[in-house]
Amino acid sequence: MIEGSKFKADQVCNNTNQEMRRIAAKYVYPLSSTEPIKNGYVELEDDGTIIACGASDSVADEAEYYDGAIVPGFVNCH
Question: Which of 18, 21, 39, 42 lies in the 20 to 30 Å Cα band around 58?
Fold first, then answer.
């Protein structure tokens, strides 16, 4: 876990009682790597907390897919 944030790169969503949004894009730039994930996704809780990210098995099956990039917003690096 990154200090001071709610991002957990290895956490998997397994709580079916909670709302979740999954956004996919041609490229995802996670904080845990310097390389982008091609055809990646980001899963969010209803409050916006990132709970998972990774490579999509099939972009055709993604409900919300963008022909662009998902990048980190404001990151406190100190």
Answer: 18
Partners of 23 in the β-ladder: 42
Residue ranges with strand state E in the chain: 20-28, 37-45, 50-55, 65-70
Q: Could you tell me the pTM of the whole model?
A: 0.69
Q: What is the C-alpha separation between 41 and 18, in angstroms, rounded?
A: 18
Report the SS3 class of residue 25: strand
- b/e map of 22-47 (b: 16 or more CB within 10 Å)? bbbbbbbbbeeeeeebebbbbbbeee
- Here the tokens at position 14 are 């397994």
